[in-house]
Amino acid sequence: MAAETTSNHKRVRKSPLERKREILDAAVRLISERGYNGISVQDVADAVGVTKQGVLRYIGSKDNMLSMVYLENYNEGGNVSDFKASGLPGSTVDDLRLPAYLRYLVHYNSQRRMLVQLFSVLQVETFNPDHPLHGEFADRQNSIWRYYSGFDWRIPPVFASFDEVRPTVRKALEVMDGIQLRWLREPAIDLNEEWSEFEPLLFPSPLWDGYR
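and the corresponding structure tokens:
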């Protein structure tokens, strides 16, 4: 009986991939609650139940952990390629609609509250030029525009090219960031419903009729 009890309490070994995922999940939660500058590698180790050296074995350094959290978690999904694979209206190659994609992105974000909170905290923290992701966030608007410009969007003929839609894209991203902040606060709002009220203002009729 004693041998059986000991066997039942053996520590479960996790694969490197499982352990890394566990570490990054803990980092996401802690950074979203306290900010990057408010946590240490030891805090992450304590949350996972391993040593600091054990965490560093998987992430290399605290700065590298932050990069992994942002690039491999927040930026991992909800992109245009995911939208094109969704089969939703406005997602086909010959009928790729920007408003439909942004609607999809808002819905995607509504299902990952913790990561949106992480993004919002980092967005403020990175005003500091010494922050590891300062450059990443400072160039965010430009990098998103470059990314969106790589797709053949179906836009109203009044626009000579997609370049003329850039002010609309900028405003849409600014509105999205603002709505997400309000969504994170109490009392909660419905992120998708709130976006649906702003969408006609960003993509008004009759200009965008048939292109949403």
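(Above: one complete record from the training split.) The first strand starts at residue 91 and ends at 92.
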